[in-house]
């Protein structure tokens, strides 16, 4: 994901750390829940300086920071170990209760994906699904939030446009991600003892409710600013 360096909106200090970190957190979750942890991926995140700041927002983030911030000569071992765990979680029948799709977790019909497709289309987003993921796959839903974050923060030139994009994210968290990720995290916790995947699960469970709270607070701040300008 390519991001500009200067937001087009003035951001109050109370929200700046959260806004600077949330896109990174969503992208980290997308990367490790959407594909196997290759050596290049592990090395990329182990060297990411901004991750140190973002990790402090959740205990799960701190777990991941400690695990990935190891000496370079240890990264191949981490990669090999976690790649095997990824394959086990995603493909073995022994962990068939662990699902990565909203419809499967909530017992929805297969055509439930059409609901997500309409949400993405209405937001003007088309995903390049390299592995044929369904629209309700955890990585696709998290990627939607990452894209909307970037669009809101770096391509909004008015308070009104920012609030419209913010409202889409609030609705998506309330109607989709927070409806099923608590169960998803419980199932992942029960299915693995991997430091990587437990850290991801803990981060996801902690961060999404916090993100919703902060989105609502920032919306109230923007609304107050808009009212003051009238």
Automatic annotation (TrEMBL):
Q: Where are the transmembrane segments?
A: none
Determine if Plastid is one of this entry's keywords: no
Which keywords, in A-to-Z order, does the entry hold? Chaperone
Reading the lineage from the top rank, the first entry is Bacteria
Q: Does the keyword rRNA processing apply?
A: no
Identify this protein by name: Molecular chaperone TorD family protein
Which organism does this sequence originate in? Paenibacillus etheri
């Amino acid at each position: 994901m390519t991001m500009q360096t200067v937001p087009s909106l003035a951001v109050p200090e109370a929200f700046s750390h959260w806004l600077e970190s949330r896109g990174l957190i969503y992208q980290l979750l997308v990367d490790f829940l959407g594909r196997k942890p290759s050596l290049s991926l592990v090395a990329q995140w182990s060297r990411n300086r901004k991750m140190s700041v973002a990790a402090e927002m959740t205990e799960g983030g701190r777990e991941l920071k400690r695990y990935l911030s190891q000496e370079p000569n240890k990264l191949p071992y981490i990669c090999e170990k976690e790649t095997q765990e990824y394959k086990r979680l995603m493909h073995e029948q022994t962990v068939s209760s662990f699902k990565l799709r909203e419809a499967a977790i909530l017992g929805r019909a297969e055509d439930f994906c059409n609901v997500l497709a309409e949400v993405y289309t209405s937001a003007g987003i088309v995903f390049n699904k390299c592995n044929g993921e369904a629209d309700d796959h955890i990585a696709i839903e998290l990627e939607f939030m990452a894209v909307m974050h970037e669009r809101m923060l770096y391509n909004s030139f008015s308070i009104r446009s920012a609030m419209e994009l913010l409202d889409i994210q609030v609705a998506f968290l309330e109607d989709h991600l927070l409806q099923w990720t608590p169960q998803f995290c419980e199932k992942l916790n029960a299915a693995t003892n991997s430091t990587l995947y437990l850290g991801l699960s803990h981060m996801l469970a902690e961060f999404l409710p916090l993100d919703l709270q902060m989105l609502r607070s920032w919306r109230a701040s923007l609304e107050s600013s808009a009212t003051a300008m009238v």
